[in-house]
Amino acid sequence: MKKALHNPLAQYLIALADDELILGHRNSEWTGHAPILEEDIAFANIALDEIGHARLWYELAADLIGEDKNTFPDKQVFFRPAQEFRCLQFVELPKGDWAFSMLRQYLFDALEAQRLKGLMESKHKPLADVAAKINNEEIYHLRHTRAWVTRLGLGTDESLRRMQAALDELWPYAQALGAALPGEIELVGDSLVPSSSKTFVSWKKEVSAFLKEANLKTIEATVHEVDRAVHSEYLGVLLKDMQEVAQTEPEASW
Amino acid sequence: MVSTSTPVRASTARIWQALAEVPDPELPIVNLVELGIIREVEWVADNLRVTITPTFAACPAYEVMGANIQARLQQLGIEQVEVQVRHEPHWTSEWISEEARRKLKAAGLAPPPHHSGDFIQVLLDPVACPRCGSTNTSLRNSFGTTPCRMIYTCNDCKEPFEQFKPL
Question: What ipTM is given for this predicted complex?
């Protein structure tokens, strides 16, 4: 791998990690509040997995830019201001109702499944290895969230109404999943990462067919220019909650 | 701290024996060696380096594991223990020993089915109830009390049980 590509790949990985971290943190808000106990535990575990995956991506990025991988993840998570995060607004949106959170997790898991297929082929061996590890764990996510989408879509009038409302709100934001990640254009040429637009096409095909089976209709939405440095009003509030304790006592060891 | 005695070099066999007494923090009926979590032990100058591979990337127990490993090895007089986390090759449920599988089952936890590398092939196989042995069981949830377990119900003895996930 060319030395000049180390930094672009690190920026790419930090964006991946930020998406996982913010979605994981957002979903952890259900802990103690999910509709049933078993699901409370399941969703907390899925949230935990995503945060664990974020750590793996941050560690890989640290290796590429000469940072200490033991301290780099916490620095990224707890000591960066909102404008330095590179997550999509899709993952920042408040948790909404159960239908909203479950549908968002499904759309994200399905995208990850497609992207990981490409990352497992990366010419950067450490990246391909981590992708394979994460891919194994994600198989359980997708199985879980698919079951919920079907259950709610084909459930009662009320569950269908909520799922359709969630889809109408999420679908335009989800189009941003097709935009190139930071550094991607340089990296695709050297077979280090897959092309997001190609990943997105496979995702859209699969997801649209699956949602249709669950009685859900996707609206027309176009992919706009996506700037991962521009955030919704919700990210700042989330970060304040997530970072407050660490920033109060930055030198504390836990 | 300066030690006045010469460093004690326990034999490798003795070290592995001691490590096999470190229980898994979340499943204390089995130990970290038979779960396949402790991968390697090697001396690096006066440091004993113990390499561990967590089951799931986000396993919250691995820091406790490291502390417990250090505490157990200190009882052998080994003061300088470095616990290194390695994800590659990634952990697979195929690393769980037959003895550990027996212990899991005896404790009411269905062991993961064997697979040849691709666990998706066995995901839909019937899971036997660890209590009555019936394979008339239903998956209740892909996530149990930890990321590495799933919840089933036995349709014959009506008991819920957990299965250690194939991975």
Answer: 0.83
